[in-house]
């Protein structure tokens, strides 16, 4: 399975592997059992938590903590902004890996990142890269045109551990026609607030006696 291609159906995996579908079908089931891939309701396979954990930069904050704590926070962020939200962490060789996405329910949305959960991509020139490398201006968030779509805008803010180190980038993305000056300011504040809440959640998980 290609980490840079996103979710794929079993038939696609079989073709890429040059193996019969009957033979290929056994391998994802084993990998799913051990957490290296996950299978969505539509039958597509994507990378699982154990595989993602093996690719990201080692840090005191675990991938499991980020995934567990981010769900409700990102759900609320997407509800507040009506735009799709994403969480990414640094991985080797100047790349980043997406841990979670929550898609907007609007009929017109930024679909360039649909299905990117578990995908690893280069950080260069992206909001995620700017955030993870600490190049965040005074408002606390980064705004840029999406790398994959010049008609989309991305807003991102850093998630930090208890020591203040940036461990993840939280972002939203949507069509630029909805991203006027007032919307960017409001959405930027919402992304910062959500990133701060996730940082606080991570800190609380590391406190003595935390579950």
TrEMBL record:
GO molecular function: DNA binding; DNA-binding transcription factor activity
Gene Ontology biological process: negative regulation of DNA-templated transcription
Bias-annotated ranges (Basic and acidic residues): 1-12
Name of the molecule in the record: Helix-turn-helix domain-containing protein
InterPro entries in alphabetical order: GAF-like_dom_sf, HTH_MetabolicPath_Reg, Tscrpt_reg_IclR_C, Tscrpt_reg_IclR_N, WH-like_DNA-bd_sf, WH_DNA-bd_sf
Domain IclR-ED: 43-204
Alphabetized UniProt keyword annotations: DNA-binding, Transcription, Transcription regulation
Residue span of region Disordered: 1-22
One of the Pfam families matching this protein, by short name: IclR_C
Gene3D superfamilies reported for this sequence: 3.30.450.40, Winged helix-like DNA-binding domain superfamily/Winged helix DNA-binding domain (1.10.10.10)
């Amino acid at each position: 399975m290609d980490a840079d291609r996103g979710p794929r159906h079993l038939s696609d995996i079989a073709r890429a592997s040059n193996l019969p579908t009957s033979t290929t079908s056994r391998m994802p089931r084993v990998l799913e059992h051990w957490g290296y891939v996950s299978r969505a309701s539509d039958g597509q396979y994507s990378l699982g938590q154990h595989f993602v954990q093996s690719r990201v930069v080692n840090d005191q904050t675990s991938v499991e903590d980020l995934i567990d704590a981010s769900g409700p926070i990102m759900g609320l962020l997407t509800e507040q902004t009506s735009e799709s939200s994403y969480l990414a962490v640094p991985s080797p060789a100047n790349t980043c890996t997406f841990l979670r996405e929550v898609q907007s329910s609007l009929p017109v949305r930024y679909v360039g990142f649909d299905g990117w959960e578990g995908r690893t991509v280069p950080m260069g020139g992206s909001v995620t890269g700017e955030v993870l490398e600490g190049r965040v201006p005074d408002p606390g968030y980064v705004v840029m045109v999406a790398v994959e779509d010049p008609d989309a805008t991305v807003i991102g803010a850093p998630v930090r551990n208890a020591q203040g180190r940036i461990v993840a980038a939280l972002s939203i993305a949507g069509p630029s026609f909805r991203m006027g000056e007032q919307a960017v300011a409001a959405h930027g504040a919402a992304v910062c607030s959500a990133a701060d809440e996730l940082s606080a959640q991570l800190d609380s998980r590391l406190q003595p006696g935390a579950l």
